[in-house]
Amino acid sequence: MIPILEKLSGFYSSSVLAIVTIGYILGELGHYLIGVTSKQTAIELDYGDHACQQNSRFTRHELVTQCSDVKNESSCYALELNSTFILVFTIAGVFMGFAADKYNRVKMLTVCTIIFGIAILLQGTVKSYWHLVVLRMVMAAGESGCNPLATGIMSDIFPENKRALVMAIFNWGIYGGYGIAFPVGRYITTLNFFDMGWRVCYLGAGVLTIIIAGLTGTTLREPERKSIGEGDRTTASGKPVTLWQVIKSPAMIMLMIAASISHSGGMTFAYNADLYYNTYFPDVDLGWWLFAVTIGIGSVGVVVGGVVSDKIVAKMGIRSRAFVLAISQLIATLPAFGSVYFDPLWAMITLGLSYFFAEMWFGIVFAIVVEIVPLRVRSSTIGVFLFVMNNIGGNLPILVDPVAKVIGYRGSIMLFYAGFYGITSILFLITCFLLEGKPKPNESEQEAQKTHPDAVLGARHIVDETLLSNGRPAQLPQHLQMSSNGYEKSQSTQPRHNGAESSRL
Hints:
Elements: H1 3-9, H2 12-36, H3 38-45, H4 49-52, H5 67-70, H6 74-100, H7 105-123, H8 129-143, H9 146-157, H10 160-171, H11 173-191, H12 199-219, H13 243-247, H14 250-280, H15 287-316, H16 319-339, H17 344-358, H18 361-372, H19 378-395, H20 400-407, H21 409-432, H22 443-450
């Protein structure tokens, strides 16, 4: 190998993480841009009239006062588009997960990135509302492969002592894309480059995404699939573990519920931050503040959470990751309340504190998932996990509006945003006790012998299926086995002292 290339090869793992993370950020940027550009998009494409006007005589353009200046009703349509996105995103993600367990993940990730990149690009050229809806569905289908495919690739590249940090950095792409959407959607649109307004945002994001797709296809290589973590032992019955057995385990069910509630809290703030601060502080432009908090402080929190989780997992086992989640969400709860209670200055300060601890959860959750799930169903499990998490967490924020009519908008945000963080802390703490601590020597073998073959499979019994073709665990011939004192056993056909049959070649 050329010396310079040999030196650069040492940065391969880091380059993989950088490329897939940037691709994910751009996908989420395309996702969240509609929430920031909704006013301009709705006016130009002429949709949403029936949501904010009680008349059929005038169009938006003929009104003296736009509805966005009154109650910002176009944001409701942004949420509707997000609901459509989530539906397609989650359903397609399940199929992508199944495919990722069987086919070349790098090639699939490349194709997926090209698809949602082109969809984002074309959103900058739409002329009708239905064009926008269709393209967002296509974008969702393409982006749905990012998480299960990239997670599978990275779990086979990075060791356990870096796994939570790597997953945290990658999954932070959701908040990175959301944070970047504020200045891009607001200020690029205002600058009105080439007299194209909001369209430039989508055109630029689309072009960058296609470039990343090219780098994905030309620089990444499919890694060898590896069995990892506590999910890769063999059951006493020797039967392959099914996806259903993995999903119905108590630890996985509790983990999905906790992740869904936590995601709902984050999405509540994501969908409502712009509207909330514009409603209560109309004279204060908080766009750059929101960008700095989500990108700057959120990034630090992601790194700290991953490092802490990776450091203590060697001492306490997988259980320690859930413990970190419970503590971080608990600490994030009180400042989250402050971010929707105080005036702008203290609102941003407490938001920063909340983000620092709250954003630790995403990467650590997926580190737990890949460590307790067998290799053969790893990506499909992630697809199902995302389906549940995004459909619950992504759609619960719809309840903010009806609840706001009863307790007020601010109270509703407090409940679904800060309140859900507190609930999540309790749920992650319960999950702690359903996961294994650090295993003792030979603990897994003893446990496997005691476990009934047909017992319900909990997270502590989710295992890999590294078996012979006949479905039974491998066993060495007797003449190659070692006695307890370390010497070779006799080739005699006499029965062993424990009464068991001797092995036969």
